[in-house]
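agent> Task received from the user: take the single chain below, predict its 3D structure, and emit structure tokens. No templates, no multimer pairing.
agent> Plan: (1) validate residues, (2) run structure prediction, (3) serialize to tokens, (4) report one or two observations.
agent> Step 1 OK, no nonstandard residues flagged.
tool_call: predict_structure(input=
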Amino acid sequence: MRRLSRKIFLCGALVASAFAGASAQYENADRQVPSSNAQVQLSYAPIVKDTAPAVVNIYTTKVVRARRSAMFDDPLFKRFFGDQFSFGGSPKDRIQGSLGSGVIVRPNGVIVTNHHVIEGADEIRVVLSDRREFAADVVLADPKTDLAILQINAREERLPTLTLADSDNVLVGDLVLAIGNPFGVGQTVTSGIVSATARTQQGISDFGFFIQTDAAVNPGNSGGALVGMQGQLLGINTAIYSRTGASNGIGFAVPANMVNSVLRAALNEGQLARPWLGIRGQSVTNELASGLGLDRAGGILVDEVYPGSPAALADVQIGDVIMAVDGKEVIDEPGLNFRVATMENGADVPLAVLSEGFIQEKTLTLSLPPEPVERNLTKLDGRHPFQGVTVANLSPRFNEEIQVDPFLEGVVVLRVERRTAAGRYQFVAPGDIILGVNGNTVERVEDLASLDENAERFVYQVQRRGRVRECVIVPNRSYRCRDIR
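)
tool_result: status=success, residues=485
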């Protein structure tokens, strides 16, 4: 498990009616506290026997390329020491390995694990509980959810699997088992309870919505199974909160409903395209709640609605507050994003919306983000300052893929070659949106295709991290920039 910020290691009365039925399904749930000594002595062994064979160990290797110091290529260095000088010979590449866990979810060898377990790997090996070893291919890798789907060739054999549970039915206090390969010691089972559900703001992934457990989870458990007492997969163990890297009883798992959406995309659609509402909003804080007439924080205040989006077609207005999605309360933006991301394209979804002082139900039909203009990835060429810069047209669909604000429009910089003038002097940087060059507005990539190579100077404007800069380049003489708004 890798270390992130905050010591995280990867491994109102008005709305009461909107949620009246949300807990009805739990009233007759088959959950009870042990009532006798015999019940206290019950064993998890039958559950482990049924589930553990579907949890695998994953070993990855990658070649880390050694870099030769630029000092050895410096002309002054060569003048004194020659071309053959070296300290101990040329640097050698090295093999770097890592380990994690995974869960078989289809009998033909489809496996779910964490993206960070296999990220950058040149080779992935999967070891089953019976010690058989297979090479694995990546079917889909999704860094936004920190999930990856692998495939091994099991030939005609049907492998043991885990069935995905409906993670919305998980309750705080439910007993759970964590199965994985901590520290590479081999398959290990730990027990605990669900400490919290719908944990957000942990900074682990873009769709931060996790099941928290106190079952011991350690490095190497990443990608392993969080199993309920019905023997179903509740989530994929992903991270721990720790000051040392060892388990402190705070572990996080990606809920099974998110796993199911990524799995569906990998097996049925071939690519991951999530539906959207088409809004820009902010979480309702205590300060905002008082101004909106709410007695507590929670919900999403709509700041902007994309024209023609599902929200626009459902008459969601700027200033509305989305309180629930499909009967499930949302208290912040990550929670809203999670709910929408786990639904299917084309689904009809009811929203509980606070509008003009009243709770209303508005039903919308989810759709994929649109791509009204072709992305047109282009590497600019020619005798001008933007030689070697790769650009593309923005659209909500493309923005989702490159993880930028879906409302941004225009031409975005994707890459800048290091050995060009733009790379050396940082005329532009990845993520910049080019607004204009030499008095000409830039709205599409085509607007950059015919730059005047003989111009005496280049004046251009870019948007970077919400601020607009104007830069002036005089070839072979000067380069300067200033913020204009």
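agent> Step 4: summary for the user.
Confidence is low (pLDDT under 50) at residues 2-9, 12-28.
agent> Done.
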